[in-house]
Amino acid sequence: MAQTLTRILVHVIFSTKDRANFIAPAIEADLHAYLGGTCRGHDSALLCVGGTENHVHLLVSLGKTVALSDLVLHLKRDSSRWIKERFKGFGAFGWQGGYAALSVGQSQVERLRTYIAGQKMHHQRTSFQDELRAFLNRYGVEYDERYLWT
User: Fold this and answer.
1) What is the per-residue pLDDT for 96?
2) How does pLDDT run across 27-44, given as a tens digit for each residue?
3) At what angle do helices 68-86 and 25-41 cross, to 10 degrees?
4) Which fold, 8-148?
5) 13 near 104, Cβ under 8 Å?
6) Residue 84 half-sphere exposure toward CB, CA atoms < 13 A
7) What is the radius of gyration, based on Cα positions, of the chain?
8) Buried b (16+ CB within 10 A) or exposed e, 8-22
9) How far apart are the C-alpha atoms of 136 and 148, rounded to whole Å?
10) Which DSSP category does 149 fall into?
């Protein structure tokens, strides 16, 4: 085949440090746009983003030459720096050390878009911790609870 053709869809989830409620409505849209720009800058497409005041969910179409770990590093590091520079009173902002990244099939995209769009309503009933555990268990991801929230 003369071309390299890929469609690698990934559901990425990460939280603010200590799940602090930093993602206020006043900065949410700008943050989401910034995350999309960061993805584009790394040859990936942000198909959907959402979350609450303490975490984000991203549906990303990973570029064919991009390592997921590199993209997430840039998403978290660059957006943290940008928030601190752009918004007063956010000097303590930071993301948690880790992240979850789960593969998504094309047939799951619309369902995941709906799920991500409904995050605020979903979290009126379910904590971030319970949500993340459910995803990890559903995908068979082994984890150590002692290190999950740092």
Assistant:
1) 94
2) 999 999 999 999 999 999
3) 140
4) Alpha-Beta Plaits (3.30.70)
5) no
6) 11
7) 15
8) ebbbbbbbbeebeeb
9) 11
10) T
φ, ψ of residue 73 in degrees (nearest 5): -55, -50
CB-based contacts of 103, cutoff 8 Å, min separation 6: 8, 9, 10, 11, 139
**How many other C-beta atoms lie within 10 A of the C-beta of residue 76?**
21
Is the pLDDT confidence value at 89 over 90? no
Could you write out the DSSP letters of every residue in the chain? --S----EEEEEEEEBGGG-----HHHHHHHHHHHHHHHHHTT-EEEEEEEETTEEEEEEEE-TT--HHHHHHHHHHHHHHHHHHHSTT-TT--B-S--EEEEE-GGGHHHHHHHHHTHHHHTTTS-HHHHHHHHHHHTT----HHHHT-
Q: 120-129 pLDDT, tens per residue?
A: 999 999 999 9
pTM: 0.94
